[in-house]
């Protein structure tokens, strides 16, 4: 029996525990109960999104999700996450066309809020062409801030969500490229506007570069990179905040490092399942992208440059996208958090591990990063 009377926070905590233990259907039922208890609970709705994107669910449970999300949309027509969840539930049921229509409604509502001038001539009816740019990584390097600055440009229109996560998700790909395109506004045929997305997971996954090249060979690519030791620390604390990590940081990163520090090549290391270490081997991942796209199509920026000199850095980004420069009055840092640093011995071990990968990165890009 689902304890609907319990406060949403308790339900979510219990559901998170069940999900981590592999009891996905029971966890989903509790997320739905939390939403029923408090329809405005965005945490429960976001957890529901994560479940639908990551797991197969039985038809009966998908029917319940559709019913609950339809009620939410009717009650809160501007609820971005309820619309998103409804579209995913429909997609999981094989109702692709209906899912596309709901995603486009989601896109319309977002554009109406952020770029109302785009709609003065009405919602364009032209063919959806997908993204003109992609921010492909890396995770915990500043992609949220970067994307926020990008879509603040009057000629750059946001996707229905920052991270569409299409090319790294098999069941999304199975729904066809038109589903992916539904996340983007139909741009006027006379040009002048751009749209794009930012999915940090794209950088690391080996199948993604060729998948993107096949359908969007001319899209402009952007990567933002951070000192890989600091990036790993940030990802650890992100996992803690999400309830996905219970070990102390020294133990969690040491366990990751022990799996790989004796291995020689990046290819060997990437074959080992690490939570925090593998993402920071940037050269290994970028080589796959540069094997599919010309170097001039890829812009790589340093996260420190974006943080300390956002105006100059964004000018470079806009030049790369071939749009006029646009300055903001305030470059607010997104998803920033304070946390304790590593003890020195572990920091030095990680730095030694990454040193050859950092050297390879600088040679690959002919670009200095200064990570010691």
Strand fraction band? 5-15%
Low-confidence stretches: 1-5
Mean pLDDT: 89
CATH architectural type of the largest domain: 3-Layer(aba) Sandwich
* CATH class descriptor of the largest domain: Alpha Beta
Q: The biggest beta sheet, please?
A: 5 strands, parallel
The first-to-last residue Cα distance is: 55 Å
CATH H-level superfamily title of the largest domain: P-loop containing nucleotide triphosphate hydrolases
- Which class of secondary structure composition applies to the elements? alpha/beta
Number of DSSP strand runs: 5
Might you state the CATH topology name of the largest domain?
A: Rossmann fold
Oligomer: single chain
Question: How many domains would you count in the coordinates?
Answer: 2
Shape: globular
Total helical segments:
17
Spell the H/E element sequence: HHHHHHEHEHHEHEHHHHEHHH
Radius of gyration over all CA atoms, rounded: 21 Å
Spatial order of strands in the largest sheet: 2-3-1-4-5
**Approximate helicity band:** 40-55%
